[in-house]
Input
Amino acid sequence: MPQRPPEGELPGNNCYGQISAPSGLKVIAELLGTPGWSTRLRVSRYSGAEELQITGPGLEMETDPVRGGRHFLGGEVEPSERGRASLRHVSALLAEAGIAHRLELYIPETDMLLDHHNSARVARRRGKRSKPMIV
Output
């Protein structure tokens, strides 16, 4: 069984998702640019594609552009309540702004998937369905 990293250390890529931002990532960067959080928006001079880096308490993520205003999201979330709270914070802000998104957090030691889809929080064992659980 994999060992959990010490509190405050990020475990490697364990968070994946998708954000729909047809009008660009600037709105999301401004939304998440609050005290204790850092966002960095990069725009390609060649193609105009946007990439966003998001850093918060126990969380580091970045986007990769896909067609049609969609962006894949990947990164690291600390395996602690602080990391999960940060992911819930991101999901709640996106949901309040009406931004379609899906964020999945994989926790290897419990083989759990915590799924934030718009404002829904669902937990299930991989391959099996279980009752929704607030994380």
